[in-house]
From TrEMBL:
Protein's recorded name: Mobile element protein
InterPro entries linked to this entry: Integrase_cat-core, Retrotran_Ty1/copia-like, RNaseH-like_sf, RNaseH_sf
Annotated organism of origin: Asaia bogorensis
All residue ranges annotated as the Integrase catalytic domain in the record: 14-167
GO MF assignments: nucleic acid binding
Cross-referenced Gene3D superfamilies: Ribonuclease H-like superfamily/Ribonuclease H
Biological processes, Gene Ontology terms: DNA integration
Matching PROSITE patterns: INTEGRASE
Length: 167
């Protein structure tokens, strides 16, 4: 069939991977008490989602979430895809320089045989599965209901994953 000007390019499908390839991201959510940070991981193949709400999103909570992911996951994690956030990765300008230092997140990955991949900086669509999951969770919780406390939201988030079929 001849190319017609204005045709949309064919969309590429995700490369197939065995279960255990997780996309991870952090989203901010609000309650009447203030903000919380929502760590989200979704398996690329099975769509299993693991979440955790924390008060502070820093390097420590990032590696604690990685350990939480491993404890909640019924199968071996072999690859993780994250953005270049300071909680999850050494900043690009510091990589392989005198200022670079090993991060505990990467050390945990290495100790468990997990490959840690990074998205291209400023390209959030590269990690689109977890970005879409963040949006879905927010639409089902903080954008739909008012939460007076962090505890109310903490009680709801696990059931949202179940209702949406991601658990």
């Amino acid at each position: 069939m001849p190319d017609i000007e204005g045709d949309k390019p064919k969309r590429q499908r995700f490369k197939r991977y065995p279960i255990g390839f997780f996309h991870i991201d952090i989203a901010e959510v609000q309650t009447a008490e203030g903000k919380l940070h929502l760590f989200v991981a979704i398996d690329r193949t099975s769509k299993l989602a693991v979440t955790q709400l924390v008060g502070k999103a820093d390097r420590k909570t990032a590696w604690e979430f990685l350990e939480h992911l491993q404890s909640m996951n019924p199968y071996q994690v072999h690859t993780i895809l994250t953005d270049n956030g300071i909680q999850l990765a050494e900043q690009p300008r510091n990589r392989n320089t005198a200022w670079s230092r090993p991060m505990r997140f990467d050390m945990i990955c290495e100790a468990h045989g997990i490959k840690h991949r990074l998205t291209k900086p400023n390209h959030p669509w590269t990690n689109g599965q977890v970005e879409r999951m963040n949006r879905t969770i927010k639409e089902a919780t903080v954008k739909r209901f008012h939460y007076d406390s962090h505890e109310q939201l903490r009680e709801v988030v696990p059931s949202v994953r179940t209702v949406l079929g991601f658990e």
